[in-house]
Structures are given as structure tokens and as C-alpha cells.
Design a protein that fits this description.
- With 237 residues, the protein is α+β, with helices and mostly antiparallel strands.
- Helix content is 19%, strand content 22%.
- It has four helices and nine strands, in the order H-E-E-E-E-E-E-E-E-H-E-H-H.
- The strands form two sheets. A six-stranded mixed beta barrel has the order 4-8-5-7-6-9.
- Helix 3 packs antiparallel against helix 4.
- The longest helix is centred in the N-terminal third of the chain and has 16 residues.
- The C terminus is likely disordered.
């Protein structure tokens, strides 16, 4: 075998071996784009890099590059499935507050239980109800003038959805009536979890007010709009 034939045979053999398995190779690695740092072997696919995938050849099939099936895709940066409340602790605001009691007509069916199934609290930590798409479950706050009391959002109510009103739990109807309606200054100590809120409400969407909170959380967290939806990859065969 002369040198020229040997070189041709070596080049053809190398191309055949390299195509025996399916792979996803960045085009930069193949020299088809401007040079970028070559990824290490076994490294995870990188966001923003265009990759080529080729179909594997069975043993004994002649290598014909012009007939090889291939497609390309671009990895996108993954988005987290669910975010915590976007705001940071320490936020101060003026809110409208009302009060409710476990033995009033619209709560008597639930007794002394809150929306998460635990007893309503009234002590140094007290229960509060709110729209969970605005104040997710677990949100804790203080009211100005009550430094020794922490309120925790562990309940919701149909009349609160779509409003910024927070309903404060009182153990008796007398205390509920005494509170009435007040605009107070609050300091948020800890924002709750949208993920936990969704987990609790997921099986309750037959109720319109729950369904609306779920939809509002999805819109807020995932920002579901037609303009923001992108396909994870683009391909051409």
C-alpha cells in the first residue's frame, strides 16, 4: 500500500469510527464555528451552545456522509419550577385588616381548624387569613403597636381573594366585633412559600376562589404569557 492510499484509508477509517455511536457534540468542537473553549469530556450540556446530534450507523453499513441524518439543538438556561415570594423581609406597609372567629356562620363548618388543617392560633403567634397569591402561606408579620405578637398567614377566605385585606383570627365574636375594620402598619418578618401554597390548594380548585388564587400564583411566578414561552430546542432534520 503506497503512502497516498494509506492516508486515504486512515482518514476514512477515522470518520467511520467516530460515527458508530449517537452523540451530541458542540459545533465548536467540530471546528464549524468560531473558536470557543472546548468542553471537558463528560461535562454537562451548556446553555446557549448549539449542538449537533447524528444518527448511529449499524455495523457493516457503508459510511456515506451525504446520507447521514442529523439535527441541531440549543440548550436554554433552565428556569426554577417555583420561586419563593419575590419580596424580602422587613417590608413595611399599610394594610386593611378585618377580624374573624371560628364560630361565625361562614367558618363554623371548619371549626377551630385553619386552611392547612391545624388549630387556629391565638397567643404570641396568631393566625391570619389572606389571599395566598399576595401573602403566601407561612408569611409572618407584626402590627405596629403590638411588638410582642407575631401573626402568621395559615388561612384564607373567599372574600379576601383579589384584595389586600388581611383577616385576623379572634377566639370570640366579642373580640372580633371590637376589632372591626382597621388600617394598620405592618412589618413583614418572613415571606411564605408559593410552592407550599400551591401544594395545599392543588386539590381544591373546584372552588372558584381557590382556583383564582392558583391562577394568580401561576401568573406571578411563571409569568405565563405567549411572548415568554420558548421551545426548549430548535431542530431541523
Amino acid at each position: 500500500m503506497n503512502a497516498q492510499r494509506f492516508l486515504c484509508w486512515s482518514f476514512t477509517t477515522a470518520l467511520t469510527v467516530s460515527s458508530l455511536t449517537s452523540c451530541a457534540l458542540p459545533l465548536e468542537t467540530l471546528g464549524w464555528a468560531n473558536a470557543k473553549p472546548k468542553p471537558k469530556a463528560g461535562a454537562p450540556l451548556q446553555a446557549g451552545v448549539r449542538y449537533e446530534v447524528r444518527k448511529a450507523l449499524a455495523a457493516g453499513v457503508p459510511f456515506r456522509p451525504q446520507e447521514m441524518k442529523r439535527y441541531y439543538f440549543v440548550m436554554e438556561t433552565p428556569r426554577p419550577p417555583m420561586l419563593a415570594a419575590a419580596q424580602t423581609p422587613g417590608k413595611r406597609m399599610t394594610v386593611r385588616t378585618t377580624a374573624y372567629c371560628h364560630d361565625e356562620d361562614d367558618h363554623i363548618a371548619y371549626g377551630v381548624k385553619n386552611a392547612i388543617g391545624t388549630p387556629l392560633k391565638f397567643g404570641s403567634v396568631r393566625s391570619a387569613a389572606a389571599d395566598w397569591s399576595r401573602y403566601p402561606v407561612g408569611t409572618r408579620f407584626r402590627i405596629a403597636g403590638q411588638p410582642d405578637v407575631v401573626y402568621e398567614v395559615d388561612d384564607y377566605g373567599s372574600a379576601l381573594v383579589g384584595t389586600g385585606t388581611i383577616d385576623l383570627y379572634k377566639p370570640t365574636q366579642g373580640q372580633m366585633n371590637d376589632w372591626g375594620v382597621r388600617h394598620v402598619d405592618i412589618e413583614v418578618l418572613q415571606w411564605g412559600s408559593y410552592q407550599r401554597s400551591m401544594d395545599i390548594m392543588r386539590d381544591r380548585t373546584r372552588w372558584p376562589h381557590v382556583r383564582r388564587m392558583v391562577e394568580d400564583i401561576e401568573t406571578k411566578v411563571y409569568q405565563v404569557t405567549r411572548d415568554s414561552i420558548k421551545a426548549p430546542m430548535t431542530a431541523s432534520l
